Amino acid sequence: MNKNLPPCPVEVTLSLIGDRWKVLIIRDLLEGTKRFGELKKSLGTITQKVLTSNLRAMENSGLLTRKVYAEVPPRVEYTLTETGYSLKPILDSMVEWGENYKKICEGQ
C-alpha cells in the first residue's frame, strides 16, 4: 500500500478511485468475484492493457485480491477486499446523485 498519501482525505479517495474504470470495476465486483474476461466484457470499451493496469493498481492499494488458479488455460479471479467493499456507500451515493441528475436533465 502507498504510505505517501496526500493530507486531504478527499484527495486520498480520489487517488484510489478517481479513475472512471476503477469505479466501474468496483461496481462490478460489489456483486461478487469476477474473472478477468467477465470484467472486460462488462466494461465494454476498456482495453486489456488498461484493465490489467487498473486491476494491478487496485490490488497494490489493497482494494481487491487476485487469485490465480494453476489450470490450462489460466484462470484468474478478482474479489474486493474489506477495504474495497467499504467503498459501497460512496458508490451508492453516486448512483443516487446520478439518478437525480438524470431526472433534472430529462425535465428540461
TrEMBL record:
Listed GO molecular functions? DNA binding
A Pfam family recorded for this sequence: HxlR
Q: Does the keyword DNA-binding apply?
A: yes
Please state every residue range assigned to the domain named HTH hxlR-type: 8-106
Domain of life according to the entry: Bacteria
> Is Transcription given among the entry's keywords?
yes
Transmembrane spans? none
Q: Any idea which UniProt keywords this protein has?
A: DNA-binding, Transcription, Transcription regulation
What name is this protein filed under? Putative HTH-type transcriptional regulator YdeP
